[in-house]
Please model this.
Amino acid sequence: MALLDRIKFDSPSDEVLVWKYPSEDLKLGGQLIVHPTQEVIFVKGGQALDLFTNGTHTLSTGNLPLLGKLVSLPFGNQTPFTAEVWFVSKTVKRDLKWGTKTPIPLIDPEYNFPISVRAYGRWGLRIQDSQVFVAQIVGTLAGADSTKVMEYFTGEIHQKFSDLLATFFAEQKISVFQINSRLNEISAETAKQIAPELARFGIEVINFNVERISIPEAEMTRFQDVLGRRMEIDQISKAKVGVAYTTMRTFDTLEKAAANEGGSAGGLLAGGLGLGIGVGAGVPLGKQVGEALHVSLDDTSGVPADPVARLGTLKRMLGAQLITPEEFEAKKKEILNGI
Model:
């Protein structure tokens, strides 16, 4: 391969972070061209050695002192030698995208339910120390190009963000459905977490934003299904409490009705309560009260089988003063809303 007389890199895009010159066959006397937004590092044996800033440089033993000591470069023009040449972009890159490649598993503290989330956002960086950056890249990502470097950093962000989000949920005790109201706080804390890791590579974090945290569609469907079932169970539990309350109110009213011997219901109730003829609490008692009021009741629940019958029962209970007008209106509204 012919020895190179001219070394330069015209970046096709501002997104390029680092680029390795394709050949290592160089010679003293050749020219190195470094653009204003670039720095160039010569590397030998994995060590980042001499650094060049913007300008046109004629390679010589004078401006390659570290490399010269390592390989004992002889004096004289046209002297061949080998080394890696890395071009590093010094521009600030603010609009870099990051996102979670896989969902992050969490436990929603409010619902105590396992659920996964995805997140994405933007961040920015600037290479602060080119020599540290290249030394770390060469040692960590052999043969790395700009794409591989960014994938590595995105992976680091994902790891730090996942750990932080799990801790945030555990400490703050908020639901995943409230998390998007705390994005500024999460963004600032994530930036604080990733800054030391990137500083190890000679990189300064310029900005970091979490734009959205979302639940995958399949996860949301599963969560809604489970939540719907839980709500049904809660409603059933509340209904049972309501039945118990009604039963206790019935006992109070029966004692008053039993004292009133003038009415047919009062006579039956007085006899039943006084003699203790097997009238128990709950449904059996409800059925006998219903019979005294000429109401057809369901055999299993003590509740009329349809809304019309239930409303009729409710009206007769009001007439018998088993419930108050306020309770009548509340229960009437409940029955009508359930149609």
Notes: Residues 93-215 form a domain with the Tetrahydropterin Synthase; Chain A fold (CATH 3.30.479.30).
